[in-house]
Protein backbone atom coordinates (compact mmCIF):
# COMPACT_ATOMS: atom_id res chain seq x y z
CA UNK A 1 0.00 0.00 0.00
CA UNK A 2 1.47 3.27 -0.99
CA UNK A 3 1.02 6.48 0.91
CA UNK A 4 0.59 9.74 -0.80
CA UNK A 5 2.86 12.50 0.42
CA UNK A 6 1.14 15.15 2.40
CA UNK A 7 0.80 18.35 0.56
CA UNK A 8 1.10 21.58 2.50
CA UNK A 9 -1.24 24.27 1.66
CA UNK A 10 0.38 27.65 1.32
CA UNK A 11 -0.54 30.03 4.07
CA UNK A 12 -2.55 32.91 2.92
CA UNK A 13 -1.81 36.24 4.53
CA UNK A 14 -4.70 38.39 5.38
CA UNK A 15 -4.31 41.74 3.75
CA UNK A 16 -3.89 44.62 6.22
CA UNK A 17 -6.91 46.75 6.49
CA UNK A 18 -6.21 50.37 5.88
CA UNK A 19 -8.32 53.19 7.04
CA UNK A 20 -9.98 55.08 4.31
CA UNK A 21 -7.98 58.16 3.39
CA UNK A 22 -10.72 60.43 4.66
CA UNK A 23 -10.60 58.91 8.15
CA UNK A 24 -6.80 59.14 8.29
CA UNK A 25 -6.89 62.76 7.29
CA UNK A 26 -9.58 63.42 9.83
CA UNK A 27 -7.40 61.99 12.63
CA UNK A 28 -4.43 64.10 11.60
CA UNK A 29 -6.64 67.16 11.41
CA UNK A 30 -8.00 66.52 14.91
CA UNK A 31 -4.48 66.04 16.27
CA UNK A 32 -3.34 69.28 14.64
CA UNK A 33 -6.29 71.22 16.04
CA UNK A 34 -5.63 69.80 19.51
CA UNK A 35 -1.93 70.74 19.37
CA UNK A 36 -2.79 74.25 18.17
CA UNK A 37 -5.34 74.66 20.96
CA UNK A 38 -2.83 73.52 23.58
CA UNK A 39 -0.21 75.92 22.24
CA UNK A 40 -2.70 78.79 22.23
CA UNK A 41 -3.71 77.97 25.80
CA UNK A 42 -0.07 77.91 26.89
CA UNK A 43 0.55 81.29 25.27
CA UNK A 44 -2.58 82.74 26.89
CA UNK A 45 -1.62 81.41 30.33
CA UNK A 46 1.88 82.85 29.96
CA UNK A 47 0.47 86.24 29.00
CA UNK A 48 -1.83 86.19 32.02
CA UNK A 49 0.54 84.77 34.61
CA UNK A 50 3.80 86.29 33.32
CA UNK A 51 2.95 89.37 31.25
CA UNK A 52 6.55 90.63 31.36
CA UNK A 53 7.76 87.42 29.68
CA UNK A 54 5.09 87.78 27.02
CA UNK A 55 5.89 91.49 26.58
CA UNK A 56 9.60 90.96 25.92
CA UNK A 57 8.69 88.21 23.47
CA UNK A 58 6.27 90.42 21.54
CA UNK A 59 6.54 94.11 22.51
CA UNK A 60 4.19 95.12 19.73
CA UNK A 61 1.49 92.86 21.15
CA UNK A 62 1.50 95.11 24.22
CA UNK A 63 1.22 98.32 22.25
CA UNK A 64 4.90 99.29 22.23
CA UNK A 65 6.43 100.89 19.16
CA UNK A 66 9.86 100.07 17.82
CA UNK A 67 12.04 103.17 17.91
CA UNK A 68 14.97 101.24 16.45
CA UNK A 69 16.06 97.59 16.51
CA UNK A 70 16.14 96.44 20.12
CA UNK A 71 14.51 99.58 21.57
CA UNK A 72 10.76 99.87 22.16
CA UNK A 73 8.66 102.56 23.81
CA UNK A 74 5.03 103.33 24.35
CA UNK A 75 3.34 105.05 21.40
CA UNK A 76 2.44 108.69 21.08
CA UNK A 77 5.66 110.15 22.48
CA UNK A 78 6.76 113.59 21.39
CA UNK A 79 9.98 113.87 19.40
CA UNK A 80 11.70 115.32 22.46
CA UNK A 81 10.74 112.34 24.63
CA UNK A 82 11.73 109.88 21.91
CA UNK A 83 15.15 111.54 21.72
CA UNK A 84 15.43 111.26 25.51
CA UNK A 85 14.67 107.53 25.37
CA UNK A 86 17.31 107.02 22.68
CA UNK A 87 19.87 109.06 24.61
CA UNK A 88 19.29 107.06 27.80
CA UNK A 89 19.67 103.76 25.94
CA UNK A 90 22.86 104.97 24.25
CA UNK A 91 24.46 106.29 27.43
CA UNK A 92 23.56 103.18 29.41
CA UNK A 93 24.88 100.91 26.69
CA UNK A 94 28.13 102.87 26.56
CA UNK A 95 28.63 102.53 30.33
CA UNK A 96 28.25 98.77 30.07
CA UNK A 97 30.54 98.60 27.02
CA UNK A 98 33.22 100.67 28.71
CA UNK A 99 33.15 98.61 31.91
CA UNK A 100 33.17 95.17 30.28
CA UNK A 101 35.36 96.12 27.33
CA UNK A 102 32.60 95.39 24.81
CA UNK A 103 29.12 93.92 24.65
CA UNK A 104 28.39 90.19 24.62
CA UNK A 105 24.64 90.60 25.11
CA UNK A 106 22.14 92.36 22.87
CA UNK A 107 18.98 92.68 24.98
CA UNK A 108 15.80 94.38 23.91
CA UNK A 109 14.94 97.44 26.01
CA UNK A 110 11.27 98.20 26.68
CA UNK A 111 10.61 101.74 27.94
CA UNK A 112 7.42 103.03 29.50
CA UNK A 113 6.86 106.69 30.31
CA UNK A 114 3.51 106.14 32.01
CA UNK A 115 2.55 103.89 34.89
CA UNK A 116 -0.33 102.42 32.88
CA UNK A 117 2.11 101.25 30.21
CA UNK A 118 4.45 99.74 32.79
CA UNK A 119 1.68 97.87 34.56
CA UNK A 120 0.41 96.57 31.23
CA UNK A 121 3.75 94.94 30.40
CA UNK A 122 3.96 93.33 33.84
CA UNK A 123 6.02 95.88 35.77
CA UNK A 124 5.62 96.66 39.45
CA UNK A 125 6.97 99.27 41.82
CA UNK A 126 10.59 98.90 40.72
CA UNK A 127 12.37 101.50 38.59
CA UNK A 128 13.56 98.86 36.15
CA UNK A 129 14.08 95.13 35.83
CA UNK A 130 16.07 92.63 33.82
CA UNK A 131 13.60 89.95 32.70
CA UNK A 132 15.08 86.45 32.53
CA UNK A 133 18.48 88.18 32.21
CA UNK A 134 17.54 88.59 28.56
CA UNK A 135 15.67 91.89 28.20
CA UNK A 136 15.27 95.09 30.18
CA UNK A 137 12.08 96.93 31.15
CA UNK A 138 12.22 100.52 32.40
CA UNK A 139 9.46 102.26 34.32
CA UNK A 140 8.78 106.01 34.09
CA UNK A 141 10.97 106.38 37.22
CA UNK A 142 13.83 104.48 35.63
CA UNK A 143 14.36 106.20 32.30
CA UNK A 144 17.84 107.45 33.11
CA UNK A 145 21.34 106.12 32.35
CA UNK A 146 22.00 104.91 35.91
CA UNK A 147 18.98 102.63 36.21
CA UNK A 148 19.21 101.50 32.58
CA UNK A 149 22.91 100.62 32.85
CA UNK A 150 22.28 98.76 36.14
CA UNK A 151 19.76 96.49 34.44
CA UNK A 152 21.83 96.13 31.27
CA UNK A 153 24.78 95.10 33.47
CA UNK A 154 22.77 92.13 34.76
CA UNK A 155 22.11 90.98 31.21
CA UNK A 156 25.72 91.51 30.14
CA UNK A 157 27.11 89.63 33.13
CA UNK A 158 24.93 86.59 32.49
CA UNK A 159 25.65 86.66 28.77
CA UNK A 160 29.33 86.38 29.65
CA UNK A 161 28.89 83.82 32.43
CA UNK A 162 27.31 81.36 29.97
CA UNK A 163 25.32 79.62 32.71
CA UNK A 164 27.86 79.86 35.53
CA UNK A 165 26.46 80.73 38.96
CA UNK A 166 27.33 83.75 41.08
CA UNK A 167 25.80 84.80 44.39
CA UNK A 168 23.10 87.41 44.04
CA UNK A 169 25.00 89.95 46.15
CA UNK A 170 27.81 89.88 43.58
CA UNK A 171 25.35 90.23 40.68
CA UNK A 172 23.73 93.26 42.31
CA UNK A 173 26.92 94.82 43.63
CA UNK A 174 28.56 94.59 40.22
CA UNK A 175 25.52 96.22 38.58
CA UNK A 176 25.77 99.13 41.03
CA UNK A 177 29.48 99.43 40.23
CA UNK A 178 28.85 99.45 36.47
CA UNK A 179 26.10 102.06 36.75
CA UNK A 180 28.01 104.23 39.24
CA UNK A 181 24.79 104.73 41.21
CA UNK A 182 25.47 107.67 43.58
CA UNK A 183 22.81 106.41 45.99
CA UNK A 184 24.99 103.43 46.87
CA UNK A 185 28.59 104.35 45.95
CA UNK A 186 30.90 107.29 46.58
CA UNK A 187 32.45 108.79 43.42
CA UNK A 188 36.07 107.89 44.21
CA UNK A 189 38.50 106.61 46.83
CA UNK A 190 37.02 103.99 49.15
CA UNK A 191 33.63 104.09 47.49
CA UNK A 192 31.73 102.36 50.29
CA UNK A 193 28.73 104.20 51.69
CA UNK A 194 27.52 101.27 53.81
CA UNK A 195 29.73 98.62 55.38
CA UNK A 196 28.58 95.01 54.86
CA UNK A 197 27.75 94.10 58.46
CA UNK A 198 25.76 90.96 57.71
CA UNK A 199 26.08 87.95 55.41
CA UNK A 200 24.73 89.16 52.07
CA UNK A 201 21.98 87.19 50.27
CA UNK A 202 23.16 84.47 47.92
CA UNK A 203 19.88 83.57 46.20
CA UNK A 204 17.56 85.80 44.20
CA UNK A 205 14.63 85.10 46.51
CA UNK A 206 16.62 86.03 49.61
CA UNK A 207 17.89 89.16 47.89
CA UNK A 208 14.41 90.33 46.90
CA UNK A 209 13.13 89.83 50.46
CA UNK A 210 16.09 91.61 51.99
CA UNK A 211 16.27 94.51 49.56
CA UNK A 212 12.53 95.19 49.77
CA UNK A 213 12.94 95.57 53.54
CA UNK A 214 16.20 97.56 53.44
CA UNK A 215 17.56 99.24 50.30
CA UNK A 216 20.95 99.67 52.00
CA UNK A 217 21.57 96.09 50.93
CA UNK A 218 22.52 97.49 47.50
CA UNK A 219 25.11 99.76 49.09
CA UNK A 220 26.55 96.90 51.14
CA UNK A 221 26.81 94.63 48.10
CA UNK A 222 28.39 97.44 46.07
CA UNK A 223 30.88 98.05 48.89
CA UNK A 224 31.86 94.39 48.96
CA UNK A 225 32.34 94.19 45.18
CA UNK A 226 34.16 97.53 44.90
CA UNK A 227 36.63 96.64 47.68
CA UNK A 228 37.31 93.26 46.14
CA UNK A 229 37.90 94.95 42.79
CA UNK A 230 40.22 97.53 44.37
CA UNK A 231 42.37 94.69 45.73
CA UNK A 232 42.34 92.70 42.49
CA UNK A 233 43.06 94.98 39.57
CA UNK A 234 39.89 97.06 39.34
CA UNK A 235 37.66 96.63 36.30
CA UNK A 236 40.24 94.49 34.53
CA UNK A 237 40.33 92.16 37.53
CA UNK A 238 36.56 91.84 37.45
CA UNK A 239 36.62 91.03 33.74
CA UNK A 240 39.24 88.35 34.43
CA UNK A 241 37.07 86.96 37.22
CA UNK A 242 34.03 86.72 34.93
CA UNK A 243 36.11 84.98 32.27
CA UNK A 244 37.34 82.42 34.80
CA UNK A 245 33.81 81.82 36.04
CA UNK A 246 32.55 81.27 32.50
CA UNK A 247 35.36 78.74 32.02
CA UNK A 248 33.93 76.66 34.86
CA UNK A 249 35.80 77.83 37.95
CA UNK A 250 33.50 77.90 41.02
CA UNK A 251 32.92 81.35 42.50
CA UNK A 252 34.04 80.34 46.00
CA UNK A 253 37.43 79.21 44.70
CA UNK A 254 38.09 82.63 43.16
CA UNK A 255 36.54 85.09 45.57
CA UNK A 256 36.90 85.23 49.33
CA UNK A 257 35.12 87.92 51.29
CA UNK A 258 35.83 88.97 54.84
CA UNK A 259 33.31 88.02 57.48
CA UNK A 260 31.16 90.92 58.73
CA UNK A 261 32.72 92.46 61.85
CA UNK A 262 30.92 92.41 65.22
CA UNK A 263 28.64 95.35 65.91
CA UNK A 264 30.64 98.45 66.80
CA UNK A 265 33.91 97.15 65.33
CA UNK A 266 35.48 98.62 62.19
CA UNK A 267 35.83 96.36 59.15
CA UNK A 268 39.18 94.67 58.56
CA UNK A 269 40.27 96.22 55.24
CA UNK A 270 39.98 95.06 51.65
CA UNK A 271 39.03 91.57 50.63
CA UNK A 272 41.79 89.06 49.85
CA UNK A 273 42.86 88.49 46.23
CA UNK A 274 42.36 85.34 44.13
CA UNK A 275 43.25 82.08 45.83
Helix fraction bin: 40-55%
**Taking all residues together, what is the mean pLDDT?**
83
The outline comes out as globular
* Rg, nearest Å: 29 Å
Low-confidence stretches: 31-49, 263-275
Strand content: 5-15%
What is CATH's topology name of the largest domain?
A: Zincin-like
What is shown here, in short?
The chain has 275 residues and is of the alpha/beta class. The chain has helices at residues 21-49, 51-57, 79-100, 115-120, 145-161, 168-179, 204-213, 216-231, 234-246, 251-254, and strands at residues 65-68, 71-73, 109-111, 128-131, 135-138.
Written account of the structure:
The chain has 275 residues and is of the alpha/beta class. The chain has two domains: 112 residues, Zincin-like (2-Layer Sandwich), CATH 3.30.2010; 108 residues, no CATH class. The chain is 49% helix and 7% strand. The protein has ten helices and five strands. The chain has a five-stranded mixed sheet with strand order 1-2-3-5-4, with helices on both faces. Strand 4 and strand 5 form a beta hairpin. Helix 3 crosses helix 5.
SSE topology sketch:
Elements (H helix, E strand, L loop, with lengths): L20 H29 L1 H7 L7 E4 L2 E3 L5 H22 L8 E3 L3 H6 L7 E4 L3 E4 L6 H17 L6 H12 L24 H10 L2 H16 L2 H13 L4 H4 L21
Parallel strand pairs: 2-3, 3-5
Antiparallel strand pairs: 1-2, 4-5
Helix pairs in contact: 1-2, 3-5, 5-6, 6-8, 8-9
Amino acid sequence: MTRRPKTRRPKTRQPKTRLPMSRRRRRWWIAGVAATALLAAAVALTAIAFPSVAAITCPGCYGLERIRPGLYAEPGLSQERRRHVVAVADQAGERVRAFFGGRAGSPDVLVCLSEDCYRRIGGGRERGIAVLNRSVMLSPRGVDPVIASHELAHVELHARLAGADVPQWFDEGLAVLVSGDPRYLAPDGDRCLAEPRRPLPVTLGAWLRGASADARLYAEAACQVSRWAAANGGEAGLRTLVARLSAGRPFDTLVTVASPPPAGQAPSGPHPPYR
